[in-house]
Amino acid sequence: MKYEPLNAPAPSPLFQPTVTARRAAAMILRYTYLMRTSWPRIIELAYWPTVQMIMWGFMTQFLANQTSYVAQAFGVLLSAVLLWDVLFRGQLGVSLSFFEEMWSRNLGHLFVSPLRPGELVCAITVMSFIRTLIGIVPASLLAIWFFGFSVYELGLSLVVFFLSLLMFGWAVGLMVSGMVLRLGLGAESLAWACIFALLPVSGVYYPIEVLPEWLLPVAHAIPSSHVFEGMRAILQDGVVPYGLMANALLLNLVYLAIGVGIFLFAFHVARKRGLLLQVGE
Fold first, then answer.
1. Number of domains the chain is built from
2. From the centroid of its chain, how far is CA 230?
3. Rounded-to-integer distance, Cα 281 and Cα 185, Å
4. What angle do CA 183, 118, 132 make, to 5 degrees?
5. Does residue 211 belong to any structural domain of this protein?
6. Would you say residue 178 has pLDDT above 80?
7. Of 173, 192, 86, which is closest to residue 121 (Cα–Cα)?
8. Are 99 and 180 in contact (CB under 8 A)?
9. Using an 8 Å Cβ cutoff, are 87 and 195 in contact?
10. What pLDDT, in 10s, does the model give residues 67-84?
């Protein structure tokens, strides 16, 4: 064992890694244990995506006999429901994991340890990925059983769509978490308000061309609209929209950088003002 002399200078912080995989993995393990010991949490993750899939599946069956739009591409609404839930679950997975630390007033305990904010960000995004899979995979498999439609027919494009929506959900979740850390738990309703504000301009159930002219620039500026337009291009026209996929991924990198920046800035301000120990309304 190597011993350092007592008067050895402390290592410069410039050469210390911002994220240590070991500490991030410890946080992931902590959240996994928390989820494993609470079966209602696991059921809740899969419950709402399944209920929505069944409701929209029956609606699709009805509309398939009434409108040519659904008849031409039977799974267009079911795919939209499942992909929208990826975005919704991805955002909630980040926000709720962070809120649970605030609700239990555990932030102060976590950050008296060597844990860094970047490591917490890594942990809650990985948990968001796991939560989203738990919610979406059972619903997608039940769609095959109930309605004979498989979202996996989108092929490798589905992987790109999934990752794009998940990354955008992480970005929104980190922005919301940063704002709640700065403003207090009285602002936690932002977790639901922010994501549903994006629903009309994302073109989830309809092409974005139906939006008013003044809203089109907003729709083009968010990754989710490119994903849903791409999904419809595959299901209706059989064309793989590489341009839309690239646009979504590039926009996601921008939004994710903004989300991480807002969260880290809010954490820095909260630590300076002692808010980590005074979390409240």
1. 1
2. 19
3. 5
4. 80
5. yes
6. yes
7. 173
8. yes
9. yes
10. 655 555 567 778 888 899
Two structure tokens written together for 183: 């403003």
Write b or e for each residue in 198-233: b if 16 or more Cβ atoms lie within 10 A of its Cβ, otherwise e: beebbbbeeebeebeeeeeeebeebbbbbbbbbbbb
* Residue 238 CB coordination number (10 Å): 8
CA torsion, ordered 70, 76, 82, 83, to nearest 10 deg? -150
In this structure, what DSSP letter does residue 206 have? S
The domain containing residue 36 runs over which residues?
A: 19-277
- Are 28 and 123 within 8 A, CB to CB? yes
With tokens 């994991």, the residue in question is 97
Contact between 84 and 169 (Cβ < 8 Å):
no
Q: What is the pTM of this model?
A: 0.81
**Is 29 inside a domain boundary?**
yes
pLDDT in tens, 84-93: 999 999 998 8
How crowded is residue 83: how many other Cβ atoms within 10 Å of its Cβ? 25
Residues in the chain, overall count: 281
Q: What is the pLDDT of residue 14?
A: 36
Question: Does residue 217 belong to any structural domain of this protein?
Answer: yes
